[in-house]
Design brief:
Radius of gyration: 23 Å
Distance between the termini: 33 Å
Largest sheet: 2 strands, antiparallel
Oligomer: single chain
Order of helices and strands: HEEHHHHHH
Structural class: mainly alpha
Shape: elongated
Strand content: under 5%
Number of strands: 2
Number of helices: 7
């Protein structure tokens, strides 16, 4: 079983991945469409500004494509949206670093300014955090599918203990089953 197939379709984390991808996708789509509305030339670097950032036709096109990809990820949801968010977030961060080095140079074909670099860093961190939510942490709850994947022995032991408690509860009605280790930790 692969980790990307492990998250159930209706798991509560899927909403975070979907809403995060959708929100960031809409922001990028609006920025790109505003650039197209101004009829910008593809590689113009004269400093045309939209929403406080410099842009040109190619940057608008990239924004629309990435925005549509994120919205598509929101529609699909689940692990696909999470993985897409982490990938796009990483690409935004790398783009921010790359364009930080090419500011005010001829290699700056997307007409990035410092506000674009800051937006790229902020959007990259936001998208990546939406993608990593519930997947990357040292203290994932034991019912999290990613924790179960990383700790198969402990997960099997807890599942066996839960089955034993359930069968014991079925044999002795009226008694509460023993609390699970995850429940004990949550009470602390």
């Amino acid at each position: 079983m692969r980790i990307r197939d492990e998250l159930p379709v209706d798991h509560r984390l899927a909403r975070v991945y979907r809403y995060g991808a959708g929100l960031c996708g809409v922001i990028l789509l609006v920025f790109g469409c505003l650039g197209f509305a101004d009829r910008l030339t593809p590689f113009d670097t004269d400093g045309t500004r939209i929403s406080g950032m410099s842009t040109n036709g190619v940057l608008s096109l990239i924004s629309v494509v990435v925005g549509l990809a994120l919205i598509g990820g929101a529609v699909v949801g689940g692990n696909f949206a999470s993985t897409l968010n982490m990938t796009v977030g990483t690409l935004f961060l790398l783009s921010g670093f790359l364009h930080l080095f090419v500011l005010d140079r001829p290699a700056n074909v997307l007409d990035f300014g410092m506000s674009n670099v800051m937006f790229s860093f902020a959007m990259g961190l936001l998208i990546a955090c939406f993608g990593m939510y519930g997947r990357v942490s040292s203290k994932l709850p034991h019912d999290n599918p990613y924790w179960r994947r990383r700790h198969p022995r402990e997960a099997a032991h807890e599942a066996l203990a839960a089955r034993r408690r359930a069968s014991q509860a079925a044999l002795t009605p009226g008694q509460d089953p023993a609390p699970t280790p995850a429940l004990l930790r949550s009470r602390d």
